[in-house]
Specification:
Shape: rod-shaped
CATH topology of the largest domain: Beta-Lactamase
Number of strands: 15
CATH superfamily of the largest domain: PAS domain
Distance between the termini: 187 Å
CATH class of the largest domain: Alpha Beta
CATH architecture of the largest domain: 2-Layer Sandwich
Radius of gyration: 64 Å
Strand order of the largest sheet: 2-1-5-4-3
Largest sheet: 5 strands, antiparallel
Structural class: alpha+beta
Length: 473
């Protein structure tokens, strides 16, 4: 019996201590105890169980011994080695009687590795929980029946439900629309065969009633026998993205409608430079229907300008090249001699600078330019005619001035001649007549005297009148 006891004691992997019930002194220990504590068997037999406890853990030894003696005890604590290092242990202690002696038999297991593994597992679990909770993506873990096992912070924020509220609930009972519920239930029926979609989109109904469109990526966690045990779904809220995509589609439709209907020609070109960044050509990436009409170039998309119009003027390449490199837009009018057209152009860089693309909005103004040239020619002709007529009028004005001067001189000479006639002839004649009448007045009969006086008065008036006229002349 003693031999069997020794074999068992020395081959068991755990520490075994035999302890006096009264004072807690160790009276025997196995080889594992020697190795674990660093004490020899003799040294251990000089110690009490309290000497092996870590500081602060020895105060409850008495209560634990009483409990072990009464019916056995199982607990974890910390023991101290000979070198002072501390290690965790798991203790199973039981009271026993040997040779009328009450003792405690303690089987002690060093759980350092297990604690380390538990700590690592706990750290990993905490890390995983932290990652799941700070992740922007929605993460939900379901069992094979669709019950919620894990519901991260992003899910809580998006739905308004807490993890505690949804734990154990079947997902489709409250989060899915009636329209999508049958399809999801059918999907879970196929899980046992390992057939389920790895990616899909569906709507969740938030507590507020809001519909949230989520894009899911799923991963299956398998049991040791290969059956699907859990499904981990990682989702992204794409509600806003879908709205933006729809808005972009509408914008694209509006753009395409405008692109196809405007009268102006429009094209997007890709500039081609040599190794010194000198523009040498450009390729048409996009053209609208009016482009053909405005340029006369058919099916230009994808082709180079040099291939379509080999002698196209250099200034077009220089302007577009500068816009592609600097990003500075330009509005200008220029003639395309080879196309025999004038254009009003607005050009600007399109897209990222490294793409070296330029968008060109232009209009054929050839007819307007021709009208302007005709108007300019008419204006020049009119100015010439005005100059000719002005010169002619100036000449006639000079002639008229000369005639006016000559007429004035003629009038002056005529006045002088008339004045001389009145003064030298008429007045002298009238004075002579008056003298003759004065001479006759003494020889006129009384009955004729009145007539003579009247004649003399009229003659005096005539002399006065002639003198006034002479003065005016």
């Amino acid at each position: 019996m003693t031999q069997s006891y020794n074999i068992l004691l020395n081959h068991i992997r755990d520490i075994v201590l035999f302890i006096n019930r009264d004072d807690g002194r160790i009276f025997d220990a196995n080889a594992v105890a020697e190795s674990a504590y660093g004490y020899s068997r003799k040294e251990l037999m000089k110690l009490t169980i309290r000497d092996l406890r870590a500081a602060g853990a020895e105060n409850i030894v008495g209560d634990q011994m009483n409990e072990a003696d009464a019916g056995g005890i199982f607990f974890e604590t910390q023991h101290r080695r000979k070198d002072g290092s501390i290690f965790p242990v798991e203790v199973s202690s039981q009271g026993a009687d040997i040779n009328a002696r009450r003792i405690l038999v303690s089987v002690i297991r060093d759980i350092t590795e297990r604690k380390r593994a538990e700590e690592m597992l706990s750290a990993e679990r905490n890390f995983l929980n932290a990652v799941l909770d700070i992740a922007g993506a929605l993460v939900v873990v379901l069992d094979r029946k669709g019950r919620i096992v894990r519901f991260n912070k992003a899910c809580e924020k998006k739905t308004g439900y807490t993890s505690a509220e949804v734990a154990g609930k079947v997902l489709w009972d409250f989060l899915l629309t009636e329209y999508e519920k049958p399809g999801v239930i059918e999907t879970f029926k196929r899980i046992e065969a390992g057939q389920f979609p790895s990616e899909y989109e569906n709507y969740w109904i938030a507590r507020s009633g809001e519909l949230v469109l989520i894009s899911w990526s799923n991963t299956a966690l398998l049991s040791p026998d290969g059956a699907v045990e859990y499904i981990v779904g990682t989702g992204v809220d794409i509600t806003e993205r879908k709205r933006i995509e729809e808005s972009l589609r509408e914008s694209e439709l509006h753009y395409r409608t405008l692109f196809d209907s405007i009268d102006e020609g429009f094209c997007i070109i890709e500039m081609i430079f040599d190794e010194n960044l000198n523009p040498v050509d450009y390729r048409f990436l996009e053209t609208n229907p009016s482009f053909d009409k405005q340029t006369g170039l058919i099916d230009a998309k994808g082709k180079r300008m040099r291939d379509l119009v080999p002698m196209h003027e250099e200034h077009w390449f220089e302007i577009y090249g500068r816009i592609a490199l600097t990003g500075q837009s330009a509005r200008f009018q220029n003639r395309a001699e080879q196309l025999q057209r004038w254009y009003d152009v607005y050009a600007f860089r399109f897209g990222r600078p490294e793409n070296r693309q330029v968008a060109v909005l232009f209009y054929d103004i050839t007819q307007r330019k021709q009208a302007e040239e005709a108007l300019l020619k008419s204006r020049d002709e009119l100015e010439l005619r005005v100059q000719e007529r002005t010169a002619e009028l100036k000449q006639r004005s000079a002639q008229l001035a000369r005639l006016t001067s000559e007429l004035a001189l003629t009038e002056e000479r005529e006045r002088r001649r008339l004045a001389e006639i009145l003064h030298d002839h008429l007045q002298q004649l009238l004075v002579g007549v008056r003298l003759s009448l004065d001479t006759l007045s003494g020889h006129v009969a009384p009955d004729k005297k009145h007539a003579l006086d009247t004649a003399r008065k009229l003659l005096a008036d005539s002399i006065q009148t002639s003198r006034s006229i002479t003065a005016e002349l």
